[in-house]
Amino acid sequence: MVKNNFSLSICIPTFNRASYLSETIQSILSQTYTNFELVIINDGCTDNTDSIVESYRDKRVRYFKNKKNLGYIKTMNKATMLSKAEWVMHVSDDDRMMPTMLEEMIEVLSEYSNQEIGFVVPQSVNINEKGELINEPEKQLVNKKNILLKPKEFIFNFTLYGRKIHDKYVFNTSFPSTLFNKRILIELGMSSIDVPVSHDILIESKICLLYPILVVDKPLFEYRIHENWGSSLNRNGEYLTEYNHYLRELFLFIDKNKIDFDYNFRKYAYQSFVNYLFAFNGGLIRLAGRYKESYMKRLEKIYEYVVFGITHDRTLLLSLMFYVVVIASFLPQLAIMKIGQFFRKI
Prior knowledge:
The chain is α/β, with parallel strands linked by helices. The chain folds into 2 domains: 8-224, Spore Coat Polysaccharide Biosynthesis Protein SpsA, Chain A; 233-345, no CATH class. It contains 13 helices and 10 strands. Strands 1, 2, 3, 4, 5, 6, 7, 8, 9 and 10 form a 10-stranded mixed β-sheet that branches. Strand 6 (119-127) and strand 7 (133-135) form a beta hairpin. Helix 6 packs parallel to helix 8 (239-256), helix 9 runs antiparallel to helix 11 and helix 10 (283-290) crosses helix 13. The chain starts with 7 loop residues before the first strand and ends with a helix.
């Protein structure tokens, strides 16, 4: 067992998730590594969150309440500033840690104590509302448990349908399982309220472009996916706008910090995004299956996606998959959802 010489702050910003919160808290307090504080912030909950949190008599728990609902990002950033440790993690109020998660992450981190690491993150498994396993990532590394990635190498993990890390690795990581160097996190501005949905990949992208990071090639975290998880942007038709905003902010950061690449990163980032949009279970299909407005409004959004795709990649016009996806996006939403469910099972 590793020594308790790393101090950690585990933060949970929570809003009306009482049905899952106990599982989350219990999974944290039951960790084999014990040198941490648990910072929980009630962001104006109207359910029985108070009674759940107050039922834990563990001295590591610090409980705060916002006077009014601030929203997830502001509450998360507030938790960072309230935290006392040098390393901080923001766990969602419906996810779960596996029992040895912190111990194994600290064990890896201690091997590189002579370097300033930006963050360390393990692989994650996806679970459903009932806590049942949806899928589990494949092991990527041969004969080793972790990998130290130099600045810029991990950025491929945040570009959809793009290059693999070292041309062979794809890690299934998640923001809530990421243990951040708090000094670096604050230095780079924490999560941005200007990019409300892509705030996680934006701050992680910034950090991994400037600092080395560690990946633990083992699933140590259970990331819960709900029926409506990740779908609000598609229901509102804002996904294309939001991801474009993320890319613009990322490019500005790259220019400001004069980060050089040995390839055209902008072209690559847009190309990988287009690849995702027109993959069979990609962005356009997800939009078409969940968009809440009228059918005519959906057609307008489909047209917007198609114009964006062709503008950034003329070769789409030669792709059979492009035409299949566009035609499929015209189907009734129930049919699209059924097709999506089928492909998630195989």
